[in-house]
Amino acid sequence: MNCRRLYYPLIAFVFFTQAISMMAQCKYPNTAFSPGESLTYDLYFNWKFIWVKVGSTHFGVRSANYEGQQALRTDILFKSNKKCESIFPMRDTLISYTTPDLEPLYFRKGAFEGKRYTVDEVWYSYEGGKTLMKQRFRDHEGVWTDTQSSSDDCVNDMLNILLLSRSKNYDDMKVGQRINYKMVTGKRLSNQVLIFKGREKFKANDKQTYRCLVFSLLDDKEKKKEKELLRFYITDDKNHLPVRIDFNLKFGSAKAYFLFGTGMRNPMDSIIKKK
User: Fold this and answer.
1) CA-to-CA distance for 259 and 117, rounded, in angstroms?
2) Which partner for 254 in 80, 114, 218, 247 could form a disulfide, CB atoms 3.0-4.6 Å apart?
3) What is the Cα–Cα distance from 167 to 159, expressed in whole angstroms?
4) Cα 35 from Cα 54, distance rounded (Å)
5) Among 233, 228, 230, which residue's Cα sits nearest to residue 212?
């Protein structure tokens, strides 16, 4: 199996919950999670028509202090299993600091894959109704590039998008409705489009069946033909917990299935069939 093919789709895992465009007002009430939440997922790749487990993803939120102010810290770790490690080792760590009302403060992604190591960093500040960003990127040769940018709109990194989207109310969302958002990395801003596909049932790896909201994430780069990057399922309750993500790859497909979690803020009212 070529485990290297998995890196970019897996990093897209953090996009699986629906994104949200936050115009001008960058603060948003958190209704979906609390410090102490911890989630684990199994990751699979379709190898010659057989689904093979290739690793796991761990997600956690905790209280923190960022430059003297109260904050939330979110961590996500992608880790390949022993089978994949022998071919292409991967240790990717993503860190995000936000205010308690989910305004982004800092983001870091350290990606170790094979013999390559890259880093994305973003520092946020706010002035005169604008979002100011100091960006820093380390390429696989160890060369650092520093840039600065600004936007009249709110801008979010991949982890902050995850947190914002989990707190959104989708009761009035219509099938086919589109959501646009801006995302920043250590070297650029990008545009993404999310489409609501409707509601379905799904049995996760914790053996429980959930009532889910289904979304499709599209690449809207330079207004070219839109291509579905992934499709994901989140629980149809106040937690909006991601339970399934389907990746459309260039040479196959991958899936992430919810395995277990602790510290959820709200009751899991979306469970329709318990194990």
Assistant:
1) 28
2) 247
3) 13
4) 29
5) 233
